[in-house]
Amino acid sequence: MLLEFQATFNLHRDVLPWILTQGSPVSDTLEKSSRTLRLINIERNGQILYTWKGLEGFTSVGLYDPCARQNEMLYSFDNEVNIISASVNTEKTLLALSYCHPASETQFQPLSPVSRYLALLIEIKPINNVKVLKAVESGIRVQFLCATEDVHQTYESHLLVVSEEKYIDQFHISIGMEEGKRVVIKNVGQIPKDRIAEDFVWLQWDAPNQMIFYIVPKRAGCVLHCLQFYPDGKFMFVFEIPLEIPIAEQGVSLLNLGYDPPEERGWERIVSQKLQVFTHKTGGVCLFYYQPSKILQEFTYMVAFLHKGCTKTFKGRTTITDSKNLKVSFINIDSYVAVYLPDQFLHLINTRHPELMCYHLFLAAENSRISGMCCDCPLQTVLKTHVIEYCTGVLFSVSINQTQLLKFLTESRQDCERLSVLHCFLLHLDLQQQKETELIEWICENMSTCLTFDPIQEFIIASLHRHLSSETVFLDKLLPYTSVPFWSQDIDGVSCTTDITDMPILKIGIFKDFWEKFHSELEYMKQAQQRFLYSNPMPRRDWCRLISEVDTKDKRSDVYQRKILENAKKVLRNMATRKYDGRTVPLNQEEEYLQKDLMGLMMVKLKDHLSLHLHHVAKNKVERIVLNFVCKQLDLVCQILEVVWRKHVLDPSILSLDGNGNSSEYFAFNVMCRITDAASRMCMPLPPGFQTLHLVLAVRCLPFGNFLQYIDAGVLTLTETFVVKLLKELDNSESNEKLKCSIILRLPENICEKVHNLWDHPISNNAIAMKYVKKLIFRLNQRDAFQQSPTDRSPLYINFLPLNYLIMMLSQVEDKALNPFEEDNIDATFLEEIALKQTSDLMRLKPC
User: Fold this and answer.
1) How far is residue 517's CA from residue 521's CA, in Å, rounded to a whole number?
2) Domain boundary among 468, 501, 529
3) What does pTM read for this prediction?
4) Residue 699: inside a domain
5) pLDDT tens digits, residue range 162-188?
6) CB-based contacts of 614: which residues, under 8 Å, 6+ apart?
7) 337 and 293: one domain?
8) Which domain holds residue 677?
């Protein structure tokens, strides 16, 4: 199953055995305790409050500490009461709870009316006073604010009391010490309170963030409000936002504040919770809402991405004909929220990057099933990545099973599914090393099957974003996170419509912690018309032309060009100093001029981009981020090659040019071709030694004609290291001569000048002579060069007019221009010998 549920708490496993040790007859206690044992609250620190009833007519409240795995009795009534909610303060000195009298007890007592619902405040260390906070006819919920972890003892506790009469009160309880150890309520006579909010129809308590979300109905819709509470009792209204959600004012829905006993209102009360708000640590706030569709066998739910200013409405198909049987659950899984309909579908909605349908994962049939769960009871998210099954009293931690996700990837046949899984793996999961290796193996084996995106590009871009986005605030908005900016294909079984909505109206001026990130998200969306993401809009041709100008003598004095070269040297030094223990890929630390310039140019462009937006970041930190970006890019390419080398057990013999490649070498060559293509389209440099290794594999794996075609098409780029290796290792057989000659004719001038003397062969000499003549003629000033009459005899005169004319012209140029080949003793005599030999070969003349 894709979602992995692990039971972190089970009432019958972790509590019931302890209850049986409390002194009652085991057989009788087991039956009633098991039947009445219920979970009533989970505090922010993970401690769990529960209640049960005994044979003696008492009702008890207990506390389970998941860290110590111990139970503790907090309080016991000497009669049976139906506890709705309970909360204990951080010091575990005060217990607040609310309970209701059964309807049968109050229905037939007209002469002595008893309030049906009561909220109590109890001193529990030691048990002393009991204070009645509320006695009303509608439901009440209680919740203590959690104190800060660094405060060992506080002298004031703050309690929220939420009433179904549509108001919230906050009580401020002063605590004192008597006789050195007794904890008492100092202001028990009149506890001060504040009215926080009122007139709401829906409310949710967010324990981890100490927030309350509530909805107030309006004439044309409703308004969502958010309250932030602090340990000192202070609170502030953070935002409000209008929503177009048809919420009926029939009763009040309260989430994560306990629940009514089943015998009072039944499970329908829990099943009816169809709206929930989720937050994410990066500043995201999402509202999920489900309403039964008017169309038979159609399931519709809406997601309001408050931090993105948009709402998406998803529609899926079901086989359920009665809307009462649609028991939907919203499950928070960090960067995703799972919309789960048992035996129908499981939709993983991407809350961080919801823009395109291909970023979400839609599962149906067998792939959507969850094992070990009670199908008759919906799940309720109570803490991040934790859900509770109320009907069984089991708390589960929820995570995405990486093994099952990888299995789903290998079985997928649609690009939308593949891309969504890759997106999940690379951006949202802490990848295990083995799983990351298996993921790279899948990418290398399925490069050609992905038609709408490049999995290598997705791996590099998404991995860079994951590793670097946490470096500083707002950096994740400046770096691309995916290789697919547009998606227009339909996804089977589900449809989606997107509506632009109003942005939240902020009520505060100073933003801290979570709200600082939320404000950053809103500011980014308000300026979304600007292109924040780093990208290179230049065509590849213009990019290469710019690079070719970097290393010329005319440009070397320019400050900008020198900066490019200095940055490239930083990258190469960083790569050289890194330790790659156990790495098997034979990549040599060499400098290839085109890749060196590309490294430097990318650093300059990225630094300019980040400096434009990261005004709050120091210059040296921006430089470090840029350097890490380029180096990590190169490391990711090396990581792909390393996986290929290890899986196919490629040995050092592949570095020999004299031999034919096997299937494993051809696979490695094909992967390197796809990496080269991806890097070219991203205008991204390649690691030192990559191109030389690529050329060596090409010589071993490709026929001669295809090898030259790959070079001419730009898939292979000749390097000095490869040419030196070629000229030194291969003998002068007919096929090798043909290969060497073809390579020399295709060499860039800067490489040819360095390697021409390594091969003493007529073919090489001929190519050198032709390049030399071409260069001299280009430098020739024709007006001065032809002042001497062609009929003037020179010591080199030969009765062959074309050759004589060429020698005379070059001799004059040699006297006036600096000879770039002077150190190799190339002069007119050398050219004469080469020209005569070539002429004799062409005319098939026998040498004298």
Assistant:
1) 6
2) 529
3) 0.83
4) yes
5) 999 999 999 998 887 776 666 677 877
6) 472, 474, 475, 478, 622
7) yes
8) 540-717
